[in-house]
């Protein structure tokens, strides 16, 4: 394994825009949920005439679909990702609209047969219900509770119950029902993550900025060096993500 400074400086200079994690090939792995979100997304898009993908990131997941509906729109709130998504998705027939997280969606009531999202920051249930046509469907993969907490707690210390109750799938389902949606499928799985070097840790924390807010290599140098030593001695660092599949229908 290369030395600490080499690994960290490389990761600190890497491009972290978009939702492409190929930089981590051979350096970190994460199990995938059994339901195969990308396959289900592709099938749902093939069966719809109009669809909206919320918080699309750089558009990488949506772009895996073999075919888009006649009307295909995606939203993204972070300008670098919106630009990346536009370059990727426009040639495929998808319009990209910049919408800040939590802002009202700039679409008419009942405009879409299908609304999708992979890892939304916070599902805007009332807006999802509003823009869905009667009988329309919401298909999404959400981040579940206590995801990657083993790694996050290395930097932030033990997280309290308020953090652990966040992203509770049953609470999210209740919010969806309160907005007028019928939840027809709700599944959560816990998935193994293995991180093989400290550079991969730096890359992840730079990309997933909500894991350790305010993260910089300089601020957390002591924790990074301790984690580097631990990986060299014990092997890959193991954490666990959690993912929730949500399918809901507007009456």
Automatic annotation (TrEMBL):
List residues of the Methyltransferase type domain.
Answer: 52-139
Q: Which organism is it from?
A: Luteimicrobium xylanilyticum
Indicate what this protein is called per its UniProt record: Methyltransferase type 11 domain-containing protein
Pfam family name, one: Methyltransf_11
Q: Which Gene3D superfamilies match?
A: Vaccinia Virus protein VP39 (3.40.50.150)
Supply one GO molecular-function term. S-adenosylmethionine-dependent methyltransferase activity
Record lineage: Bacteria, Bacillati, Actinomycetota, Actinomycetes, Micrococcales
InterPro entries for the chain: 23S_rRNA_MeTrnsfrase_RlmA, Methyltransf_11, SAM-dependent_MTases_sf
Superkingdom of this protein's organism: Bacteria
């Amino acid at each position: 394994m290369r030395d600490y400074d080499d690994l960290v400086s490389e990761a600190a200079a890497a491009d972290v825009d978009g939702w492409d994690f190929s930089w981590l090939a051979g350096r970190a792995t994460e199990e995938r949920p059994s339901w195969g979100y990308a396959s289900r997304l592709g099938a749902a898009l093939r069966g719809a005439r109009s669809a909206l993908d919320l918080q699309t990131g750089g558009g990488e997941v949506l772009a895996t679909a073999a075919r888009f509906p006649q009307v295909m729109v995606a939203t993204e709130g972070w300008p670098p990702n919106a630009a990346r998504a536009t370059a990727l998705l426009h040639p495929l027939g998808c319009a990209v609209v910049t919408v800040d997280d939590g802002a009202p969606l700039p679409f008419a009531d009942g405009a879409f047969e299908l609304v999708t999202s992979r890892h939304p920051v916070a599902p805007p249930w009332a807006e999802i219900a509003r823009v869905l046509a009667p009988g329309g469907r919401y298909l999404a993969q959400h981040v579940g509770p206590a995801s990657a907490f083993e790694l996050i707690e290395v930097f932030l210390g033990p997280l309290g119950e308020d953090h652990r109750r966040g992203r509770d799938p049953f609470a999210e389902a209740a919010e969806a029902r309160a907005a007028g949606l019928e939840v027809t499928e709700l599944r959560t799985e816990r998935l193994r993550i293995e991180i093989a070097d400290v550079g991969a840790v730096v890359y992840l924390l730079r990309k997933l900025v909500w894991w350790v807010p305010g993260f910089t290599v300089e601020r957390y140098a002591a924790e990074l060096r301790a984690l580097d030593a631990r990986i060299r001695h014990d092997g890959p660092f193991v954490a666990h993500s959690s993912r929730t599949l949500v399918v809901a229908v507007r009456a």
